[in-house]
Input
Amino acid sequence: MMARRDPIGKIRPFVDALNDRFNACRKPPRWQSIDESMVKFKGRSMFRQSMKGKPIKSGFKIWSRCCTRLHTYQFEIYHKSRLSVAPKRSNNDLVEGVVLDLCRPLAEAS
Output
């Protein structure tokens, strides 16, 4: 099977450097949450998502792992083809894959 090309490959080093820096600056607390957010963008991009009924209706969707003090420890830009999970069977598989990917640094540190 042929390996898929990373859709955000051009900015992947920047995203990885930010995630490494976020984790190096602070020790992650016990209580954390994972949530999605939208960064407003009205141009053309294959990463642009639309969510009706939200304050920011279209832009880039970002999944992030944060603490209760609103510090970000890990984030990932959403793109339709996820590299680390098998083909999606349901929306729960997508969410589960995101949670596992964002929590992977915590498991590796212990």
